[in-house]
Design goal:
The protein contains eleven helices and seven strands. It is α/β, with parallel strands linked by helices. GO terms for molecular function: methyltransferase activity. This is Methyltransferase domain-containing protein. It holds the Pfam family Methyltransf_25.
Length: 274
Amino acid sequence: MTATVSDTELKARHRAMWATGDYPRMVDTFLTPLGPRLVDACQLTAGDRVLDVAAGTGNASLPAAARGARVTASDLTPELLADGRRRAEAAGLHLEWTEADAEHLPFDDASYDVVMSAIGVMFAPHHQESADELVRVCRPGGRIGLLCWTPDGMLGALFATMKPFMPPPPPGAQPPPLWGSEEHLRGLFGGRVEWTTLDRDVLEVTAFPEVHGYGRHFTSCYGPTIAARANAARNGLEQEFDAALDAFCEEWDRGAPGAARYEMQYLLAVGTRR
């Protein structure tokens, strides 16, 4: 499928958004455990041809390569891939790094044994197009593995908190946390994937002792939150945004005074491509 001019402009905005802030710092601060969890669930073995879609800095790609898999890490944002390359070099790992749009993957049909994505493909705006691409590049009998934030968990609530401060989404775009819904996944993939794992779990975050530290970290490092706050500021709603984010942090804190703790729910889904 050929990207339209409007689609090209949309992806350029997405690319710029994810290059904003400091996503690699977020990975180092609390997201690192997610990549190995997905790799474990996919049961990767040496020699597997693996595609990591929307790989970011390689949070799942690097542990996959460490197992001896032949890994291609793809992402829309070259700045994130550059950080991933540095991490791979420091660890002595060899991977292929490819700039690619999850909705228009530049790979041949049935060319991978495992196609996976850890909190990555869920952020491509057109869900069906992305799901179709994941299926297309995975060989029949191969595995598709996804780790996505859930719509009714903490990140789903964060996006709901930010939504009033963001500009209207482009036509056809769907909310990212829908990928963490079992029903939504079944609708996207139909009978093309036989799901063998559909498990919900949480990533426990204790990196921010002060209750509002979590929100401040997101406004400093996380592209979608930075974009939402910037749009709020353009409309004179910066203080309202900050207050809403503070209230969100207070609502989701599961810790004690001086020891905030957050539970970020995700759906781990692994299935066989029919």
